[in-house]
Amino acid sequence: MLMPTLAINNLRFQNRGPYSFRIEAGECVGLQGDSGAGKSLLLRAIADLDPRTGLMQLGDINADAVAAPVWRRTVGLLPAESGWWLESVGDHFADFDAVDDGMLAAVGLDRSVQNWQISRLSTGEKQRLAIVRLLHNQPHCLLLDEPTASLDQGAVTRVEELLLAYCKMQGAPMLWVSHDPAQLARISAHRFLMATDGRLVDIGEVAR
Amino acid sequence: MNVKPLSPVDLALAASLLVLLGLFSWRLQLGLGKQLAIAAARTTVQLLLIGQILRLLFAHVHIGYMLLISMVMLAAAGREVVERQQRSIKGFHGWLIGTGSMFLSSFTVTFLALFVIIGNVPWYTPQYAIPLLGMLLGNTMSGVALGMDRMTETLWQQRQIIEQRLLLGQTAGQAVREIRRQSIRAGMMPIINSMATAGLVSLPGMMTGQILGGSSPLDAVHYQILIMFLICAGTGLGTIAAILGVERKLFDARHRLRLDVLSSVHDS
User: Fold this and answer.
1) All structural domains of chain B with their residue ranges
2) SS3 B238
3) How far is A147 from chain B (nearest CA, A)?
4) Measured on CA atoms in the order A42, B153, B150, B242, is the torsion positive or negative?
5) How many distinct structural domains can be found in chain A?
6) Domain limits at A26?
7) Hey, is the C-beta of B194 within 8 angstroms of any chain A C-beta?
8) Would you state the pLDDT for residue A2?
9) CB-based contact (8 Å) between B182 and chain A?
10) Upstream peptide bond of B122 is cis (omega within 30 degrees of 0)
């Protein structure tokens, strides 16, 4: 699939919505708003993790026309806190050998992480590995819930570059939740605001 | 049968042991006194009642009575399974999953044992049918309750991990595979353990009763082996059915984890 557009139409869930918007292929939209406004809920609904109504389309894929696991694999949601359930890092990948060295290097890691024990990872390491795990799945779209919240400044820059490069190269639409105005200015020209009453406001193009 | 009858005084002596335990509970602030008293009273009343009912049943053998009493037993077991859940599935479905899987396993296995293995005429001879069904239902109930409780509780605690696995494109079945296995194991461990220690550590209740009643130890042992196998099969099948039922209910067609079908936590 080349250059898909994410189109959300009348998305409703848990008395919220309707939400309707488009994110063009290769475009990164920043999503800002107070804590508790419902930014994460919106991402969950797009990943079809909560009961919802409305049309969701990514390129020529209609969410309701494919099995939910296929849709989730395609839209690629990175939750604020990543989950790990097996002993070692490598166990969480279908085939760790196929993971791109460049991608590991881009988050400041190397192949030896394959045998690292999950219980000994720091929050920041987990987050960086969660990003590698997500991108390794080759999603056609990225929904990022504060992807750099637990990282130090050096890692933040590297991760931003990696994600933006993925977005450009794959032509993936990207919705990036962040509380940091400086970060939003770096990664996105186009902004949405989740108001405290749950309305989604398109702020449009913001001067960088 | 040459069993020595017990007088009310004999039973009262045994009850005094419970009073002693109650005193300990009060002294050590275990808070078990009330539960202990209620459970002991229930045992006394329920067993006296079933004694009378069995006496009547043995005197009037009819399949209608048998069906009636087995349904009452099943309904009581179904209610007990729901009661033992910390977070049970809301509404009629929660009751149906436990009760339905007990019905499928216990009744099928009991019927098989009565009809094919023991082969009395009629097959529903109450002296055999009621104790057999009772033992199967009781054990299956424990397995089903343990398994379901483990499943719902673990899903609740690990919801973040389950959802992470779903987000990576796993199906509901893949995302709960380990939890499903653990839950079925939890339901089956007690019976597997008691089969492993039977005769070495514990003399099972039914065998003891038969021997007290004057049967030859070998006859009693043969029956006990039969019972152990039946209970294990019944518990295993019932637990598997219940866990699959819980899994179906806790995930919807879009592979979403639906914890909203669980009731809020209540102490069992």
Assistant:
1) 1-60, 63-261
2) helix
3) 15
4) negative
5) 1
6) 6-203
7) no
8) 62
9) no
10) yes
Strand-pair partners of B51: none
In eight-state DSSP terms, residue B4 is: P
Whether the predicted interface score ipTM is above 0.90: yes
What DSSP character marks residue B60?
A: S
Q: Is residue A208 part of a domain?
A: no
User: At a CB cut-off of 8 Å and minimum separation 6, what does B5 contact?
Assistant: none
Pairing outcome for strands A190-194 and A174-177: unpaired
Return the SS3 of B99: helix
Alpha-carbon distances, residue A163 vs A103, B84, B150 (angstroms): 10, 49, 40
Q: Please give the Cα distance from A5 to A13 (Å, whole number).
A: 22
Tell me the mean pLDDT in the region A186-198. 90
Chain A CB contacts of B178 below 8 Å? 85
CATH number of the domain that A43 lies in?
3.40.50.300
pTM here? 0.87
Checking if the pLDDT of B268 tops 50, the result is no
Q: What percent of chain A lies above the pLDDT cut of 90?
A: 79
What dihedral do alpha carbons B138, B139, B140, B145 form, nearest 10°?
A: 90
**Residue A136 near chain B (CB below 8 Å):** no
A137 in a domain, yes or no? yes
The 3-state secondary structure of chain A, one letter per residue? CCCCCEEEEEEEECCEEEEEEEECCCCEEEEECCCCCCHHHHHHHHCCCCCCEEEEEECCEEHHHCCHHHHHHHHCEECCCCCCCCCECHHHCCCHHHCCHHHHHHCCCCHHHHHCEHHHCCHHHHHHHHHHHHHHCCCCCEEEECCCCCCCHHHHHHHHHHHHHHHHHHCCCEEEECCCHHHHHHHCCEEEEECCCCCEEEEEECCC
Q: Is residue A1 part of a domain?
A: no
Nearest to B255 among A68, A77, A133 (CB): A68
Q: Could you give the CA distance from residue A168 to residue B212 in angstroms, rounded to a whole number?
A: 82
Structure confidence by residue, pLDDT tens digits, B128-177? 899 899 999 999 999 999 999 999 999 999 999 999 999 999 999 999 99
Can the peptide bond before residue B131 be classed as cis, meaning omega within 30 degrees of 0? no
